[in-house]
Write a structure and sequence with these properties.
Elements: H1 3-41, E1 46-48, E2 50-71, E3 80-82, E4 89-90, E5 95-99, H2 104-123, H3 132-148, H4 154-178, H5 182-201, E6 204-207, E7 212-215, H6 235-239, E8 256-270, H7 273-277, E9 283-287, E10 293-301, E11 309-315, E12 327-343, E13 348-350, E14 353-360, E15 363-374, E16 378-382, H8 386-391, E17 410-412
Antiparallel strand pairs: 1-17, 2-8, 2-12, 3-5, 4-7, 5-6, 7-8, 8-11, 9-10, 9-12, 10-11, 12-16, 13-14, 14-15, 15-16
Helix pairs in contact: 2-4, 2-5, 3-4, 4-5
Length: 415
């Protein structure tokens, strides 16, 4: 080969080497650029392990079913006067409320005017005729007025007013017997008695059919959603409840009810895998709209139709809180677990074993961990015991050198 050809080949090889070098540099630059972009989009952060709690739950609409008895009268529609206020406890036979008579307001106004006239007539008498009985009655009236000013309980107010009225009439009768103008006072008393009799004859008192909690929040579903028909409740029946979720039931001016305050049911429609695997008698947790987490027993699971089933829970907590609601939002908590809580993105799975990458002052260790519980986002982990590691096939020589995870360790996210 000539000297000229040798130089040409040498020059070609040099150019090829330069091209290859430039190509390698370009590839490295692209890789570095891509890594930087990746770090910007998904930075390799660390997570500090702390104790926490995770749940497996689902949110749905719950329908409250109570043991409740409506109390009302078909004969009166003039409004009611409550004797026992909303939420108060009653025994069987206690008066809950009464119906107003037809002309109650007018009759009460007439009685009030007569009371003023009677009092004016008494005050016009010579005080020397006052007997010790009158003085005693006046003292009792003052005591009841004082008590009346210190209470806001409706039943106590009604009782004190009734006693004051009774004392005033007795005082007027005594004054009428002792005074020269007693016939005028007696005439007023007689007229008042007639009005009072007319007033009382038009009033009807309603008593509690059983012990429980009084409520005037009536929604019209008291006789269709009952504890006696939970076995026949369907999705269609629940869907027919025309009440907004979370709506507070309005108070009735014509009816009341007595509610069993020891338990109630919550029915819902579920389609999750957890619901499908649940069994009657299982105890789970429910989270109510007031954020209380309460125990609940599954008392009924209907057959799954189109992947859905009616599930009925029995609860014994927050029963009185739920009296004002029929349709609420609930969280069904199938299980919960506490311990070292880590994001699922920090866990690596290899050969059916789970690991996390621990970072200590820039040095990383791949540590075997046991997953206790896991939901969609987080897991509760712990280190294996020596016995568990031996069951996994590790030898007594390997186990001492294996590192474990602990509280406040830093682990790598998305390793």
């Amino acid at each position: 080969m000539s000297e000229k050809s040798k130089k040409k080949n040498k020059l070609n090889r040099k150019k090829l080497g330069q091209v290859v070098s430039l190509l390698i540099i370009a590839i490295i630059a692209v890789c570095i650029f891509y890594s930087i972009i990746n770090l910007l989009i998904e930075p390799s952060d660390v997570f500090v392990i702390e104790n926490g709690k995770i749940y497996q739950e689902e949110t749905n609409i719950g329908y409250v079913i109570r043991d409740e008895k409506l109390v009302f009268s078909d004969e009166h529609q003039n409004g009611i006067v409550t004797i026992k206020p909303e939420g108060s406890k009653v025994a069987k036979g206690d008066s809950i409320f009464r119906y107003c008579s037809q002309n109650e307001q007018k009759l009460e106004e007439k009685i009030s005017e007569l009371d003023k006239e009677i009092q004016k007539a008494i005050e016009g008498q010579n005080t020397s005729i006052y007997s010790t009985d009158i003085q005693l009655l006046e003292k009792q009236i003052e005591e009841k007025i004082s008590l009346l000013q210190t209470t806001n309980k409706i039943d106590e107010i009604a009782e004190y007013k009734s006693e004051i009225s009774s004392y005033m009439i007795r005082k007027a009768k005594i004054a009428g017997e002792l005074s020269p103008s007693g016939s005028y006072i007696n005439k007023l008393i007689t007229q008042r008695s007639e009005y009072e009799q007319e007033l009382n004859s038009g009033q009807q008192y309603i008593s509690a059919p059983e012990s429980g909690t009084v409520s005037y929040k009536i929604d019209g579903y008291e006789e269709s959603l009952t504890v006696n028909n939970i076995e026949t409740i369907t999705k269609e029946i629940l869907d027919s409840v025309k009440i907004k979720t979370g709506q507070l039931i309005s108070s009735s001016s014509e009816q009341g009810k007595v509610v069993n305050n020891f338990y109630c049911y919550i029915a819902t429609v579920l389609s999750s895998d957890n619901a499908m695997s649940a069994k009657e008698g299982d105890i789970i947790k429910l989270r109510l709209s007031n954020h209380d987490e309460i125990s609940a027993e599954i008392v009924r699971i209907s057959d799954f139709n189109d992947g859905e089933a009616v599930v009925v829970f029995k609860i014994t907590q927050d029963v009185e809180y739920l009296i004002g609601y029929r349709k609420i939002s609930i969280d069904v908590i199938w299980w919960n677990a506490s311990g070292l809580k880590v994001p699922n993105s920090s866990i690596i799975t290899e050969d059916d074993k789970n690991y996390v990458i621990r970072n200590r002052v820039g040095y990383t260790d791949k540590i075997l961990v046991k997953i206790e519980k896991q939901n969609e986002n987080y897991a509760i982990i712990k280190s294996y015991t020596t016995e568990e590691l031996m069951d996994l096939g590790y030898t007594t020589n390997e186990i001492p050198s294996m590192k474990s995870i602990s509280l406040y360790d830093e682990i790598v996210l998305k390793p």
